[in-house]
Amino acid sequence: MKVIIVGDVAAGATLATSLRRLDENIEIVMYEKDRDMSFGNCELPYYLSYQIKNSQDLVHRDSESFAKRYNIKAKNYHEVLSIDKENKSIKVLDKKSGQEFEEDYDYLILATGAHANVPKSIKGTDKDHVFTIRNVVDVENIRAYYENNHPKEIFVAGGGFIAIEAAHALSELKDTHINMSVRGKILGVIDDELKPFIEENILENGVNIIHEKELVEITDKEAIFASGKRVPADMVILGLGMAANNKLAKDAGLEITEKGSIVTDDDYKTSDPNIFAIGDVIDVKNFFTGEKENLKLAWPAHRQAKYVANLLGGEKIEKQSFIGTFLLKSFDLNIGVTGLGEAKLKELAYDYDTTLISHTDIVGIMPEAQMVYMKLLFDKTNGKIYGAQALGKGVVDKRIDVIGTLIKMGGTIYDLYDLELGYQPYYSTTEDINNVIGSQAINIKEDRLPHIRIPELKDYILDYKIYDIRNESAYKECHIKEAELFTGSLEDFAIPKDKKILIYDDTGSSASNTIKRLKNMGIENVYMLDGGMVYLRKYAKYFDLDLICEDE
Predict the structure, then answer these.
(1) Interatomic CA distance for residues 251 and 155, integer angstroms
(2) What's residue 248's pLDDT?
(3) Which of 2, 132, 228, 447 is deepest in the core (most CB within 10 A)?
(4) What percentage of the chain reaches a pLDDT higher than 90?
């Protein structure tokens, strides 16, 4: 059997080495059109910030190591120009010699990845000081330009992963100022209650965020928007997302989705049974819905590669689906997401609920303790966990990983609350953040803790008699409009007959206890503002809502 792999980064390289481990007799050939093979894509920003000194440390394997260690023929600077499906062959250009040749295959694997999105509507993207970030050569060029030209004003276009990581890395360079343009709201995969924390943290780290809808031109010294706004730009990074490298597949007549991904079945076969596609060039099956979605993440790409290797090697393997778990380092803020977000749950018309908490990652009196802000999304009927999002300067990754594990096992909020997690003051609290948010979700689901969610407050605020149960100083600093400060005993609560009661504090902890006590006293018409003033204050400011009175 002869297997040819087009593309030799995460997906392609993993498939090749995995297939070799299964069978020594398969002929494996890989073609990579660029210079570097098997490089650490996710590590690229850390070369820009000089945390990684040598760019070759980003490259895991080259042609020689593939040949010597795995008996794999791997060639860089070799571009596959076309596919002849009928004759099961490809035409290849040796970019160094300029010669073309044909090579046949039994199976062809397209791991062509994605390219940076560079809208044609933006003039000046071909200028020498304009860059994208896709491979090792890109970051070498950016760093070389910085060292040779000493740009002071760096402009980063975009508000997603690539843009945030680029802004973070470049802001650490000497004598640089970063302007970052965000077309909509920051980091689209994050729900609205958490977005303000991210943007606030970026601003606190000296990056200026510009909310403009359309970038139209890049000149030698400026970035110009459709509104007429001009921003200084000695160097420009375009972090406007990625698009599938589908030209080879498209020209071969393989089926392509409306958004440009190569169509595959559950075995990653394309519309041609002898051609597979894996990695960023395809869509993958969602764990919850069974529908295909775009998920440009390293872990799914590696798993797809191993699946196809097992399939070609004659091994049985279960069909794959993905929930989408990722982590992001944004300056000194740790961000993690797993599962479905609220926009997707709404789109699917799932009967869901959510809750928010603020909690220290370790015992609060420990000097290293930091706050973590978390959102949990779950089924209203059975408590099945749909997703979680968390951020903070504390330890976020292990909380998200635990919930991601539960989701893949079909876990519920009851399972989350009941998890026996390790405790030691340096590592966690007696009940971990995950236990605490699981408990709160249970109380909400079982109606022991009726709540109103922050995005709903603006629509229903007039339906409530609102009590602020913090102290007078906190109330004077900021409070919900029409809220009354309440510092008396519970027996003194005035219960209006025509309205519900909404109670809030800073984080929801005291409000939760107050509501439980009032319900024990037979008062049912009471609700907690989920997340409390910590979330609401940032949310109202970010979305420009007239909900809060603040001390001038």
Answers:
(1) 36
(2) 98
(3) 132
(4) 92
Pairwise CA distance, residues 157 & 239, whole Å? 6
* Residue burial 510-523, b: 16+ Cβ < 10 Å; e: rest: bbbebbeebbeeee
- Half-sphere exposure of residue 552, counting CA atoms within 13 Å on the CB side? 0
The predicted structure's pLDDT at residue 216: 98
Helices 509-520 and 433-445: angle between axes, nearest 10 degrees? 40
Nearest to 302 by CA among 14, 548, 547, 517: 14
Encode pLDDT of 10-60 as tens digits.
Answer: 899 999 999 999 999 999 999 999 999 999 989 999 999 999 999 999 999
Confidence of residue 86 (pLDDT cuts 50, 70, 90): very high
**Residue of 387, 382, 390 lying closest to 404 (CA atoms):** 387
Residues 6+ apart with CB under 8 A from 152: 175, 176, 177, 234
Both tokens assigned to 167:
């802004």
Rounded to whole angstroms, the maximal C-alpha distance in the chain is: 89
Chain segment 361-401, per-residue pLDDT in tens: 999 999 999 999 999 999 999 999 999 999 999 999 999 99
Distance CA 441, CA 417 (A): 9
- The residue behind tokens 């481990």 is 21
For 93-111, letters b (16+ CB in 10 Å) and e give beeeeeeeeeeebebbbbb
Is there a contact between 375 and 434 (Cβ–Cβ < 8 Å)? no
Helix intervals (H) in 76-189: 136-149, 161-171
Q: What residue type is assigned to position 460 of the chain?
A: Y
- H and E: helices and strands count for the chain: 16, 32
Collect all residues with Cβ–Cβ distance below 8 Å to 344 and sequence separation of at least 6: none
Instruction: Please give the Cα distance from 175 to 153 (Å, whole number).
Output: 9
Q: How confident is the model at residue 488 (pLDDT cuts 50, 70, 90)?
A: confident
**Collapsed DSSP state (helix, strand, coil) of residue 113:** coil
Task: Give residue 352's pLDDT band: very low, low, confident or very high (50, 70, 90).
Answer: very high
Measure the CA–CA gap between 275 and 272, rounded to whole angstroms. Answer: 5
